[in-house]
């Protein structure tokens, strides 16, 4: 069986979100479509990773935006600049060949990506600031008087909160139960689980940083298919061809 339910399964929102004043419009990034969904007034975007940066950059054109959280690194130059386009092959080669589970630096990156997201790609902190986004490194940690409160004690008077806080995994439906790592992801190597006959696709950092990009999905899928074919070939009667049926 191949489990290809993807990396984004259950939207994750902190429990204290329920304590916010009902007049504050709340959306998870998975629910956001355009700024027209938001109430008039300031927007607090919680979480500085890909979604948080992209949505904050879009929304600031129509609303004051405060973006709360720390970035997990960023590209050295803007991705869509001339230098960024020229350097894309270098970035891609690093993400493809070096940032893998087979290297120390790749394993460290995997830990960071699984706990807080990847580095900023399209919109980095300089572009966000230039667009008018207010960046605050203090995390949003609670509620005071119905308003969101930051870890530094600051209370924000906003009309909207956009939760870019990621997703939780849910593999409880798989029987027999599977072993999960400390971050809640299935224990596997390149999509092959310890359970015989069980495979995964779409796991965050399944093999490399590119696993969560179109760039790496094909390589991950090919590895899983090759492994299945080898397994079936070993079980097939001698001389009989093995056919994989979609």
Architecture overview:
With 246 residues, the protein is of the alpha/beta class. It folds into 2 domains: 14-74 and 119-168, FAD/NAD(P)-binding domain (3-Layer(bba) Sandwich), CATH 3.50.50; 169-235, no CATH class. 28% of the residues lie in helices and 15% in strands. The protein contains 5 helices and 11 strands. The protein has helices at 50-59, 82-98, 104-116, 125-131, 214-235, and strands at residues 2-3, 10-11, 25-28, 43-46, 65-68, 134-136, 140-144, 147-150, 160-163, 167-168, 199-200. The strands form 4 sheets. It has a 5-stranded parallel sheet with strand order 3-9-4-5-6, with helices on one face. It has a two-stranded parallel ribbon with strand order 1-11. Strands 2-10 form a two-stranded antiparallel sheet. A hairpin with a 2-residue loop joins β7 (140-144) and β8 (147-150). The longest helix has 22 residues, at 214-235. The chain is globular. The model has no long low-confidence stretch (mean pLDDT 89).
